[in-house]
Amino acid sequence: MSITELDIPYRGGFVGPEHHFALTVYFEDTDTAGVVYYANYLKFMERARSDMIRAVGVDQAAALRGDGSAYFVTEVAIKYRKPARLGDDLVVVSTVEAVRAASVDIQQRVIRGTEQLTDARVTAAYLDRDGRPQRQPRDWVERFNRITTGM
User: Fold this and answer.
1) pLDDT digits (tens, 9 = 90+) for 59-85
2) Which entry of 7, 31, 67, 128 is annotated as an active-site residue?
3) Pick from 91, 94, 102, 101: nearest CA to 147
4) Which of 99, 116, 132, 138 has the most CB atoms in a 10 Å sphere around its CB?
């Protein structure tokens, strides 16, 4: 059996400092009225954020396997503006706003065409296996700083 392009998972990518991650709203994402359940926007943003971190060259899986360190969301502020619906094609646009010694602030917007549906600011802290903040690896900080928008 050979692997084709259809067998490769979708990956987002950078457009300047913005990371774009496209997805489609499926039935499982919606309530009985066909509207995306509010908590699922957080799942969409998590997938996009994880993909952005991978695309910038940070190997979270290796860190987790190594010393047990990982990024944990410590704060989210989200504004819901318009609902997404069953069958909609969406794009999650993520930008790094600030990089500190032990955390990263990321703005994430969910967009349908030209309409902004949500706007969120997420703080991801780098924590050790016991849940204590620790400095991010220097090369990770440098990678994030290269794509920071400085908003």
Assistant:
1) 989 999 999 999 999 999 999 999 999
2) 31
3) 94
4) 99
